[in-house]
């Protein structure tokens, strides 16, 4: 059975991001999916030390930057980072200077 997307979902791109940090380095992955279903997948390795939260922000910002270059008009994002999602949605308040900078850039 074929799904019929609602009016609110038409033209909606989807961005899924995840960041990671460990002793050997940090990086992120992101998947950008068009309304037609084709996907762009990216793996990023950072040349700087980053915490998990910083890697999550970097993934989100990279994904949104790519979407902007593709002239995406409507996008829905998802992340497994409670902090990043809470800050981005305005549910949390940034307490650290670096998180404030990421939020301001976002």
TrEMBL record:
What InterPro entries does the entry give? RNaseH-like_sf (IPR012337), RNaseH_domain (IPR002156), RNaseH_sf (IPR036397)
Q: Which SUPFAM superfamilies match?
A: Ribonuclease H-like
Which residues are in coiled coils? none
Q: Which GO terms describe its molecular function?
A: nucleic acid binding; RNA-DNA hybrid ribonuclease activity
Q: Where is the RNase H type-1 domain?
A: 9-106
- Name-wise, this protein is RVT_3 domain-containing protein
Biological source species: Cephalotus follicularis (Albany pitcher plant)
